[in-house]
Model the fold of this input.
Amino acid sequence: MDEKHHGRITKEGIRLHESADFAGMHKAGQVAARILDEITEHVFPGQTTEEIDRIITEKVNAAGAKSATIGYRGYQHASCISVNHVVCHGIPSTKTLKPGDILNIDVTVIVDGWFGDTSRMYVAGELPRKAERLIQVTYDALMLGIEAVRPGNTFGDIGHAIQSYVESQRMSVVRDFCGHGLGRVFHAPPNVLHYGRPGHGPRLEEGMFFTIEPMVNLGRPETKILADDWTAVTRDKSLSAQFEHSVGVTTSGFEIFTLSPAGLFHPTYQQAQAR
Ligand code: MF3
Ligand code: CO
Ligand code: CO
Done:
C-alpha cells in the first residue's frame, strides 16, 4: 500500500486507482486529444513534421500542461510523428510531407500530475486506397480491443480481439511494441500486448488505467530501429498505422479518457474529401 497515492497494487504490479482519479485522467486525456484535433489543419503536403511538432509544443504550453516526452530517455520533442513505413517513435524532422503520405501523431501530456497519451492517423492530401484500408482496420482493431475492457476479462482477451481481427483482414500486428499502464506515471505495468489468447494474462479490475495502441502493418510484423536509436520501421518497408487511447476500467466496462472533443479521432476520410 502506497501511503501517498492510496489505491491497491495487484500481484502483477498493476495499480488500482480510486474513483476520484478518473477525473484527473479525463482532464489530461482531453488536453492531449484536443491538441490532436487542433493539429489536423496543419497536416498537408509540403509541411515539415518539425513544424507540426513546434505547433504541438506551443499548444501543450498554452494548455498549461507539460510534455511527457521532452526529456524522456533523452527524447527531445513533444510528439512522435511516424510517416508511412515508420511504425512508431518517428522523430520530427525538416523532411516535408508528400501528397498521400500517412502519418501517426502521438502526444503525451501531464496535467495536474496525470498522464494523457493518445495518437491517431492523419493524411497529407488525398488518402491512397491501400492506406485507407490499413487505417480503417487499425482503428477498428483498437475499438475491438477497447470493447473487451471490463472487470473479469483478461489482458489476453484484449490482445486476442485485436490480433484475430487484424489477421482476418490479412494484415499483421506488430509484436515489438505494446501499450502500457499509466496514471501518475508514463509507463507502468502491465505491458498491454496487442496479440494474445482468450483468458490469458492478468485479470482486469476496476481502477486500472492503461493505453491500447495497436500498430498494424500491411506486410510482415517485424520491425527494426534506425541508427537514431528511436525510429522504428517495418523491416519489409510496408505501410504501418497506429491508433492509441488511454482508458480506465470502470465497474461495468471502460472509460476512454482521450476521446476527441471534435469527433476527429478517425478523420482521414473527411480530410481527404475536403481537398
Ligand atoms: N507516447 C508513446 C507511447 O505511446 C511513447 C513515446 S516515448 C518518446 O507510449 F520518448 F518516444 F516520446
Ligand atoms: Co502509449
Ligand atoms: Co503514445
Observations:
- The two ends are 55 Å apart (CA to CA).
